[in-house]
Amino acid sequence: MSASNILLVTGRPGIGKTTLVSHVFEELLKNGIHAVGFKTEEVRQFYSGMSARLGFDVVLFDSSRTYPRASLARIISQSSQQVQRQPRVGQYLVDIPSFESLAIPCLQSIINDLENVSSINNLRKNNLIVCIIDEIGKMELCSSKFTCLIEKLISSISNLPTNGQCDIKHPTVVLLATVPSPRRPDGTRGIPFVDRICSMKEASIIEIDISNRDKTVQEVTERILRCKSS
């Protein structure tokens, strides 16, 4: 497997990681590539010309452009009765059931495809599948189901045989995910699962900043398209 099959986009909060993977998704659609996954969007409340962040939603990447969404987290209310029942990340309560209702079927569908090669070869004529996850971070990892499926997906990508190893032509699968940037003096993120996948030899880290974020969209798209013929 080429290192380019696991692409991890990082950068400081607000630098444009979600925007980047959203643009890559659109470019892949234009090229007839099957891409699935989700992105994380802010939920804001507007009043008197001002706005305040209420939390985050996850939004499905959808070729039909209906973009289903589900709540990921909301700011903790002083009167909230959910505090004792939901995990907390900073000032937010993570709504695991809501998050899982969208994220888990999405990930499971990819894994099911990988386990049913004959079906996938009929459905994906270009033999390339791209899974886009925005993001693999503290909130999302509150879900043990999500964590397990990401681990299973990465393992599946790592263990896919090359075309010369068997008679069945396996698809090429690319994982494009955003991850938090390193914040500790030792260069880690303080999120063991994320630090572990970032240190994998199969993973390629793509760090974006203001100077390179626009051109990186095309670079990432071309990198994924090259996997199609590898």
Descriptive notes:
- Helix content is 35%, strand content 27%.
- It has one domain: P-loop containing nucleotide triphosphate hydrolases (Rossmann fold), CATH 3.40.50.300.
- The protein has six helices and nine strands; from the N terminus they run βαβββββααβαβαβα.
- It has a nine-stranded mixed β-sheet with strand order 5-6-4-3-2-7-8-1-9, with helices on both faces.
- β3 and β4 (69-75) form a beta hairpin.
- The protein is α/β, with parallel strands linked by helices and 230 residues long.
- One of its GO terms (molecular function) is ribonucleoside triphosphate phosphatase activity.
- Keywords: ATP-binding, Hydrolase, Nucleotide-binding.
- This is AAA+ ATPase domain-containing protein.
- Pfam families: NTPase_1 (PF03266).
In short:
This protein is of the alpha/beta class and 230 residues long. The protein has helices spanning 17-30, 96-115, 117-123, 144-159, 192-198, 213-228, and strands spanning 6-10, 34-47, 50-61, 69-75, 88-89, 92-94, 128-133, 172-178, 203-207. A hairpin with a 2-residue loop joins strand 5 (88-89) and strand 6.
